[in-house]
Write a structure and sequence with these properties.
By secondary structure, this protein is an all-alpha fold. The chain contains 4 helices and no strands. Helix 3 packs antiparallel against helix 4. The chain is globular.
């Protein structure tokens, strides 16, 4: 997911959102957030995380 966010293509964001919607409870949010900070994609990560959270029932 980190690599897809770093690439920044529209389809990559859709893919990451899809994974988040199906696998949120299985992901290590803190680990991904840490890497997003290190790679300068923290805002992109926050955006898809917020989108995934908003789409949950």
């Amino acid at each position: 997911m980190i690599h897809k966010l770093k690439a920044g293509r529209a389809q990559d964001f859709i893919d990451v959102l899809s994974v988040l919607q199906r696998q949120t409870d299985s992901l290590d949010h803190a680990y991904i957030t840490d890497w997003a900070k290190k790679l300068g994609i923290r805002e992109e990560w926050r955006h898809v995380w917020t989108q995934a959270d908003a789409s949950r029932p």
